[in-house]
Give the backbone structure.
Amino acid sequence: MPDTTGNYTGPPPVARSPITTVAAGRGDGALTLTDESSYGKLLVRAAATGPMATALGTRFGRTSRDAGDEALVVGSGPGEWLLLADVAELPKLTEWLEQQAEADPDLVSIVDATHGRAMMRLTGHAAADVLAKLCAVDLSDTFVPDGGAFRSSVTKLVTDVVRDDAGGASTGDRPSYLLHCERSSGQYLWEAVADAGLEYGLTTTAAPT
Amino acid sequence: MMLLRCPWCGPRNVTEFRYVGEKTSRPDPATTTPTQWRTYLYTRANVFGWTVETWYHSTGCRQHFSVERHTLSNRTRPVQENS
């Protein structure tokens, strides 16, 4: 609840996942869909070639883990980045970003979109086959290698697709894709991907705690 | 399926884009006449052949860009220098 100065004094806000039907699937675990909406998400906009871009260490269409601790920086658009990290890391990450922004002569915006976005991870050897049913982009290693990212229409929904095999390291060397969309569409995307993965034995799981 | 090549994202299904219109030059509002302004707002050449258009990649990079399109074949190409 805000105090007399307008500052929030209660417990930290809870980012609840918009995905409600996290039921265990029938697969053998070789292909999994995990709700990772609880991850912290920061949107950064700045000049595509300025100091902020240099600090973030990646460009449109690629990802990096060089900025901050354990943060995944996604070049989600020209002059646009999506930073994914544990919610507990966000204050430190935001502070670091604000320091970088001060050195940038151009306009920089940093927005915490944790509460407003849904995110899920699709991992498994058949992950690209599942996505190919929903998205027209060529997902071969040539065009979307590990560390690649793009925004496109997935099941007719604007979705950031990030190939992050390292983030799914606990599952072996299988390809792993993060799917990131507006919160209000998260349930729809979840059900569409789960439905597309049925024939491949998809297992749906809740986010690891 | 019609493919359109976005300068940022590469070739994508045209359903990812929004057609903005023929590329026209905007007259100076301070000096233009009502007739010139009306022509700018509403009159289109609607050519048969190659025309320069503006498109918006709404489900991709969210950038506006110019492209040349042949209105009969729907072939597209980057904007030529003399266009």
In short: The helical segments of chain A are 51-56, 90-102, 127-132, 186-196.
